[in-house]
Amino acid sequence: MSDLITKIYNSFDPSRPLPAGDPQYVNCQSVRGDEDIVNDLGKRMRNSNQMTYQLYTGHRGSGKSTELRRLKKSLEEHGFFVVYFEADEEDIDPQNVEYIDILLACTRRFLKDIRSANAAPIQDWLRDRWKDLKDLAQMEVSFEKLTLEQALSVFTKLTASVRAEPTQRAKIREKVNPHTITLLNALNEFIADARQNLPDGKTKLAMIVDNLDRIPIDFRDNGRSNHEEIFLDRSEQLKGLNCHMVYTVPIALVYSKWGNEVQTTYGKTQVLPMVMVQDQKGQVFPEGLAKLREAIEKRVRPHASDLELDSQIFDSRETMERLCMACGGHIRELMQMTQESLNRTDQFPIAAKSVQRSVTELRAVYQRTVEEPEWARLAQVVQRREIPNDNDHRSLLQRRCILEYSWLDSEGEICTWYDVHPLIFKIPRFLEELDKLKS
Questions:
Q1: Is 377 in the same domain as 432?
Q2: What is the residue range of 66's domain?
Q3: How many domains does the chain have?
Q4: 229 and 256, same structural domain?
């Protein structure tokens, strides 16, 4: 029994995005306002004669990385060579990031993934800057015999320092920032050659930069935010690479006063909403609940095909549905709470008490997240099902205290609405503010 619990526990790993085509994947398009990355972002890229530069966003943990992997596979099936990477894995520190960090990361990933292209433009750029970069790269390089591998090693060292060493990060930015345009030009020469020599008969080139949505908002003394500086002030550079680009972007920027400028600059931003588990009246939405049940079942079945989900894995259907409703349609939190419930289980079925404990513990996290003036704002969201366009509510959205949902009405209109995370609903301080509004 303990071995079975361990296997099922690990199948709910919340940090593991699903690969494209994974049998555990659940298509939630119908309960996410008909949003589908393959049809929306993918078709624009396939149909356009010009390079496209698109943004993709949603709540952290909503499943964006899984969807981006689906996009990558679809593009590859349509003749694209796709360079995909998670920016915070090896290249940037989301807590402290500037545009130049992203450009260095893109350069490293192109060099790493496309070995068939002529790297001479990048090598020449390094040679011209080596006096400034030598001490920062902390390595000896012979430019007479500089190979692609050596150039890659230099950029790997630079991005690793940018990500993990604050002192070096500042020095690297100081030295590289004045040469942003020349690096961009050199990289475009590399890309131009790459597009003529793509492997496996591919004819188009695309890059997907994931996890930039994890950059927390930080306001400068001039009132501008780091989000605006990166995605708007440096938009010409982000759109300067001569291939199709998809960047994830913090959800707070898309819903800021700069939303129109974002759309003008990049076109429509694709937003991945929550799985709708209840409607605007607070009633259970059966189709959304069924999708979350399916997500649980697909992770359990490979290990326990002979056990009933509603009586032998969970002690009742109500216990399982308690998990689904408590997450508010947030996939990663469903995985987290299921794991925690399993962690408190010595033998199946998972008891209602174990589920309640996992729910209570995550609720405590949200209670600590909300600051005192924010309780009243959250109560107002429940009454209106919409949010004002201000920094206070964008911050709550970024922290998932407010969740976004979408659905299609009878005329095909996409309707978007907002609600407070279900875990907050039983916090006494929130209920106090809700009672004030009702009285």
A1: yes
A2: 36-272
A3: 2
A4: yes
Residues 6+ apart with CB under 8 A from 185: 121
Give the residue with greater pLDDT, 6 vs 161. Answer: 6
Domain boundary among 251, 272, 293: 272
Give the rounded distance of the alpha carbon of 434 from its chain centre: 32
237 and 329 share one domain: no
> What does each C-alpha distance from 250 to 64, 243, 272, 279, 357 come to in angstroms?
12, 22, 12, 25, 31
Residues 6+ apart with CB under 8 A from 110: 83, 117, 187, 190, 191, 194, 207
- Hey, what are 146's tokens? 């500089």
Label residue 39 by pLDDT band (50, 70, 90): very high
Q: How confident is the model at residue 151 (pLDDT cuts 50, 70, 90)?
A: confident
CA distances (Å), origin 50, targets 44, 209, 326, 339, 343: 10, 19, 44, 45, 51
Structure tokens at 104: 């260095």
| Whether pLDDT at 143 is above 80 | no
Q: Give me the mean pLDDT over the 176-200 stretch.
A: 93
Over residues 228-265, the pLDDT tens digits come to: 999 999 999 999 999 999 999 999 899 888 888 999 99
Please enumerate in sequence order all residues whose Cβ is within 8 A of that of 179, keeping only pairs 6 or more positions apart, or say none. Answer: 125, 129
CATH of the domain at 45: 3.40.50
Sequence-ordered list of residues with C-beta below 8 angstroms from that of 61, at least 6 positions apart, any chain = 14, 330, 331, 332, 333, 400
Tokens linked to 375: 């309780």
Scanning the structure block, which residue is given the tokens 């149909």?
Answer: 47
Q: How far is CA 296 from the centre of its chain?
A: 21
Q: Please give the model's pTM, rounded to 2 decimal places.
A: 0.92
- Residue 65, H or E segment: helix 64-77
Q: Which two tokens stand for residue 301?
A: 């079945």
Q: Which of 227, 250, 272 is the last residue of a domain?
A: 272
Q: What is the pLDDT of residues 103-128, one digit of tens each?
A: 999 999 999 999 888 889 998 998 88
Same domain? 135 vs 278: no
100 and 125 co-located in one domain? yes
CB 333 within 8 A of CB 397: no
Residue 178: asked if its preceding bond is cis (omega within 30°), the reply is no
Rounded mean pLDDT of 129-153? 73
Q: Tally the residues of the chain.
A: 439
Same domain? 329 vs 348: yes
Q: Quote the DSSP letter at residue 246.
A: E
In a shared domain, residues 21 and 72: no
Q: Mapping DSSP to helix (H, G, I), strand (E, B) and coil, where does residue 403 land?
A: strand
